[in-house]
Amino acid sequence: MFSLIENYSKKFKKEEQILKNLSSGNFKFFGVPRGANSFLSCVLGNYFSKETLVIVSPFNNEAELLFREALSFLPPDDLIFLPGNEAIPYEHTHYSPEIKRDRIKALSAILNQKKKLIFASVSGILQTVPPKDLLESKSITIKKGKQYKQQDLIKKLIEAGYRREDVCEVFGDFSVKGEILDVFSPFSNLPIRIDFFDDEVESIKIFDPESQKSMGEVKETT
Prior knowledge:
There is one protein chain. By secondary structure, the protein is of the alpha/beta class. The chain has two domains: 2-133, Rossmann fold, CATH 3.40.50; 140-221, Penicillin-binding protein 1b domain (Penicillin-binding protein 1b fold, 2-Layer Sandwich). Helix content is 36%, strand content 22%. It contains eight helices and eleven strands. The strands form three sheets. Strands 5-6-7-8-9-10 form a six-stranded mixed sheet, with helices on one face. The two termini are 31 Å apart.
């Protein structure tokens, strides 16, 4: 699939008028079938491979659909999905955990300059974000064998908006059982169990949120 994207990108380079219009930032594609939007987005993303390209859709579900379709054409590490809060203005509603998770992952990827093609909704683009320094200060990477004070980590989790629960089951939760700290991070599809020996991280394990049973060990987590 990626070779197909590259071939279409090369065709753009052969069309001087298209190249000129694309470079000017003012170009419209007409007659594109709805199902081809994600493919065309990937072709453009590959064409502008040295720059960040933002594809804006009216709503979260439309942006997510394009993002998921684009996964068939480009590597996941080249793509970002940036949703936003679509609540009615002045209406007191809470973010869904999924939107919170996806926004955090997207903003982290943008800060790290790892991705090039962003699929965003209008609300995702318009929503304000904290300063870069503040976002970076909220990120914590835990490594096996390193020293960390458990109480300091708990304080940082609370400051970052995590909820302390008896059992860690959904994104944004954490729980403490003696020297064991369970955390469900937005950067993981499953929660992480950090086992301390005094201040040293003895092990970091992935576990099933329903059964609470360990599923494997990793060397670090963010």
